[in-house]
């Protein structure tokens, strides 16, 4: 039976980069012995304009019915003044929580051809290949109670609640350890167990899960030190597992070690392996419509989709190698261009990957 992939192009450069991913999917289907049905849905600002909501019921139904979802990006300045409930970003958050996509995988890989793109010294970042596993549907971003209240003497107080259930910690830890088994077999769990009780439990439960994976080495680090170590000596990490908020911050930091927002993919998975795949960058309204956006983060998101949701790890590796090939050929979109390389358009980059495949 063929798999179902839902495409959600979204806003800004979203449609441009998804178009390149579709070319790649067509090539894989034609030559890779794989089969799937592609369906497109509206999300974000595009959905708001057409239907008045950033996550229409039909889109949610399509996403629920799919084996995997490929998303471009949402948002743009024209929707910034909207009520937060109908802002484009709400569509993205809605799909993540509705589908229970609790495991956010954010690799930070520095391609050898792009070492110069990092702001850090080549010896610190060359060969960098780490995976941040961020808990995505719990913690302080979802904890109740939350809000802004008025105290007795009239002063306002903002409050959020950091909560983690044992089961939530256990399932994200298992994802991290399972991934580590296929990598360098090292997991670093990041918390603030010296100050926050919820993460004291985090540390305890992750340690319990480690016993199920005797071949994987577990270490613990406080988040402030982890931030420092990521910049000081990022290659000491293999897999990092952490809470929703710490993961949000650390994964952006890790991404920037590679210096190229247009290169980095991500996956958000549920319990069964179904997932949503998307580049980590946003809708880049400043360059939308110009045909210059880098489609490689989206194409590498397709590779993650092949690996984690479509049971096609060999094709995933083939696609990643094809991206390496086009970089070897010196092809660069403007965000990763440096002198001595050849600047190409979004479409030409997608074509080159298809050719390399
Ligand atoms: P952004 O990631 O869209 O852009 C930051 C900078 O990186 C811009 O200069 C942009 O031109 C460049 N850039 C991003 N992706 C690129 C690519 N593939 N190729 C070449 N250059 C690229 O972040 P920004 O500007 O903060 O946000 C723009 C909009 O995107 C906002 O509405 C924001 O809310 C939304 N956003 C959406 C996300 C998502 O859909 N997952 C994530 C982050 C932001
Ligand atoms: Mg972020």
TrEMBL record:
<feature type="binding site">
    <location>
        <position position="224"/>
    </location>
    <ligand>
        <name>substrate</name>
    </ligand>
</feature>
<dbReference type="InterPro" id="IPR019818">
    <property type="entry name" value="IsoCit/isopropylmalate_DH_CS"/>
</dbReference>
<feature type="binding site">
    <location>
        <position position="134"/>
    </location>
    <ligand>
        <name>substrate</name>
    </ligand>
</feature>
<dbReference type="Pfam" id="PF00180">
    <property type="entry name" value="Iso_dh"/>
</dbReference>
<dbReference type="GO" id="GO:0009098">
    <property type="term" value="P:L-leucine biosynthetic process"/>
</dbReference>
<feature type="binding site">
    <location>
        <position position="96"/>
    </location>
    <ligand>
        <name>substrate</name>
    </ligand>
</feature>
<keyword id="KW-0963">Cytoplasm</keyword>
<feature type="binding site">
    <location>
        <position position="252"/>
    </location>
    <ligand>
        <name>Mg(2+)</name>
    </ligand>
</feature>
<keyword id="KW-0432">Leucine biosynthesis</keyword>
<feature type="binding site">
    <location>
        <begin position="282"/>
        <end position="294"/>
    </location>
    <ligand>
        <name>NAD(+)</name>
    </ligand>
</feature>
<dbReference type="GO" id="GO:0003862">
    <property type="term" value="F:3-isopropylmalate dehydrogenase activity"/>
</dbReference>
<feature type="site" description="Important for catalysis">
    <location>
        <position position="141"/>
    </location>
</feature>
<keyword id="KW-0479">Metal-binding</keyword>
<feature type="binding site">
    <location>
        <position position="224"/>
    </location>
    <ligand>
        <name>Mg(2+)</name>
    </ligand>
</feature>
<feature type="binding site">
    <location>
        <position position="106"/>
    </location>
    <ligand>
        <name>substrate</name>
    </ligand>
</feature>
<comment type="pathway">
    <text>Amino-acid biosynthesis; L-leucine biosynthesis; L-leucine from 3-methyl-2-oxobutanoate: step 3/4.</text>
</comment>
<dbReference type="InterPro" id="IPR024084">
    <property type="entry name" value="IsoPropMal-DH-like_dom"/>
</dbReference>
<comment type="subunit">
    <text>Homodimer.</text>
</comment>
<keyword id="KW-0560">Oxidoreductase</keyword>
<keyword id="KW-0464">Manganese</keyword>
<dbReference type="GO" id="GO:0000287">
    <property type="term" value="F:magnesium ion binding"/>
</dbReference>
<dbReference type="InterPro" id="IPR004429">
    <property type="entry name" value="Isopropylmalate_DH"/>
</dbReference>
<dbReference type="GO" id="GO:0005829">
    <property type="term" value="C:cytosol"/>
</dbReference>
<feature type="binding site">
    <location>
        <position position="248"/>
    </location>
    <ligand>
        <name>Mg(2+)</name>
    </ligand>
</feature>
<feature type="domain" description="Isopropylmalate dehydrogenase-like">
    <location>
        <begin position="4"/>
        <end position="353"/>
    </location>
</feature>
<comment type="function">
    <text>Catalyzes the oxidation of 3-carboxy-2-hydroxy-4-methylpentanoate (3-isopropylmalate) to 3-carboxy-4-methyl-2-oxopentanoate. The product decarboxylates to 4-methyl-2 oxopentanoate.</text>
</comment>
<keyword id="KW-0520">NAD</keyword>
<keyword id="KW-0100">Branched-chain amino acid biosynthesis</keyword>
<feature type="binding site">
    <location>
        <begin position="76"/>
        <end position="89"/>
    </location>
    <ligand>
        <name>NAD(+)</name>
    </ligand>
</feature>
<feature type="site" description="Important for catalysis">
    <location>
        <position position="192"/>
    </location>
</feature>
<dbReference type="GO" id="GO:0051287">
    <property type="term" value="F:NAD binding"/>
</dbReference>
<keyword id="KW-0028">Amino-acid biosynthesis</keyword>
<protein>
    <recommendedName>
        <fullName>3-isopropylmalate dehydrogenase</fullName>
        <ecNumber>1.1.1.85</ecNumber>
    </recommendedName>
</protein>
<comment type="similarity">
    <text>Belongs to the isocitrate and isopropylmalate dehydrogenases family. LeuB type 1 subfamily.</text>
</comment>
<keyword id="KW-0460">Magnesium</keyword>
